[in-house]
Amino acid sequence: MTSELLQQQTWQQVLEELYGAAKLSEQTERYTALLKAYQEHFGASAPVLFSSPGRSEIGGNHTDHNHGKVLAASIDLDTIAAASKVDAPVITIISEGYADKFVIDISDLSPQSGEGGTAALIRGISAGFAAQGLQVGGFQAYVSTNVIPASGLSSSASFEMLIGTILNTFYNEGSQDTVALAKIGQYAENHFWNKPSGLLDQMACGYGGFIAIDFANPATPVINPVPYNFRESGYSLVIVNTGGNHADLTEDYAAVPNEMKAVARLLGAEVLRDVTEEQIYANLKQLREQAGDRAVMRALHFLAENDRVDAQVEALTSNQFDDFLTLITESGNSSWKWLQNVYQDSNVKEQGISITLAVTELYLKRIGQGACRVHGGGFAGVILAILPDEYVAGYEELIKKTVDTSTFVIHVRPYGAVCLNDLLKG
């Protein structure tokens, strides 16, 4: 693959399908710079191109880990790589903007003491492939990303699915589907990075498009594409970076599924998917005493949010967009008041999400249209706003003037983690 080939019509069509016509020139320049950087670091071989998107969680806030339902989408902020196979059992990653070169000897796939972050994930994904009886091997790659790190757009899952797709393409003839690769990514997070993640992030980054996922059986989650095109709706999805990040929030995240499951266990179940609202009401006094009030509130959020995902899908498929926006608002209110994941209890002076939601709600009330909600894991990071196209510029100006953070108009892309060269082949 050379930068000259990017100018050919076939490659231009691939980029336009991924990013849209409006971003074609920008993305062509981006991939050209990626190839140039690869050649500067690794020589003049012909690398293969890969892309793995971030994800937007539209509905189903903190439901996947209790076998719930989620409405999610792959977005056009992504992690991209130029990569080539090598003979040695070594994976070498150079990432734009980072001084460190990551060199991982995958002849030893056991967790390494003191190894964290990128290196741990690469080793963990390789170990996940090997544990499934799949092939692993070395490669070298130059990586670039515009997925905002530690923000709720799943930059880590985007990277995991990128590495998984490279190994799947180079050494396994693309035999593993999205679910298999997502489980390997989750395995790497859980066992090599000590992050108690569910499967949502990897699935949404890996599948592509706008999808509803049912995790009733996490071993075989049910994925249903949702046939709705936001680009033609007259509305935009806007991600707002509130200025905080997820870097030191593991305890806050872990507490959510732990408290939900504590309620479930007191009612004789393992997860809240197997619990009803009536059971909670019938045992409310005991639950409050033994699990605590916040745990009960989080359990009630789960049950309502799970039903809300079905209603959101129905609203979109029946083209009842006003109903969909109402449901988004309800989801946001439930996350704020019941799930309680818009700020840390231990740090009430810093409430970037709360402030940004307040500013956004007042703006939406003024224009009389749209909806907003906390996005992703919460506690810090980003929010999601959905508003008419004609009001996006005014909203971005307001955010800059008030909280002085960045906004991103995102689009749902049709492909998840993918080898671009395979797209070119059709």
Structure characteristics:
four-stranded antiparallel sheet, alpha+beta, eight-stranded mixed sheet, 426 residues, globular
Structure description:
- It is globular and about 65 Å long.
- The model has no long low-confidence stretch (mean pLDDT 93).
- The chain is α+β, with helices and mostly antiparallel strands.
- The longest helix is centred in the last third of the chain and has 25 residues, at 293-317.
- It starts with 8 loop residues before the first helix and ends with a helix.
- The chain is built from 14 helices and twelve strands.
Overall pLDDT confidence: 93
**DSSP summary: helix tally:** 14
Spans of 5+ residues with little confidence (pLDDT < 50)?
none
Rg on CA atoms, Å: 21 Å
Helix content: 40-55%
What fraction strand?
A: 15-25%
The major beta sheet can be summarized as: 8 strands, mixed
**Main structural class:** alpha+beta
Shape: globular
H/E series, N to C?
Answer: HHEEEEHEHHHEEEHHHHHHEEHEEH
Distance between the termini: 17 Å
* Number of extended strands: 12
What's the SSE blueprint?
Blueprint: H1 9-19, H2 24-42, E1 48-59, E2 69-85, E3 90-95, E4 101-105, H3 117-131, E5 139-145, H4 155-171, H5 178-192, H6 200-207, E6 210-214, E7 222-225, E8 235-241, H7 250-266, H8 277-282, H9 284-290, H10 293-317, H11 321-339, H12 352-367, E9 371-374, E10 382-388, H13 392-402, E11 407-410, E12 418-419, H14 420-424
Parallel strand pairs: 3-5
Antiparallel strand pairs: 1-2, 1-12, 2-5, 2-6, 3-4, 6-7, 8-10, 8-11, 9-10
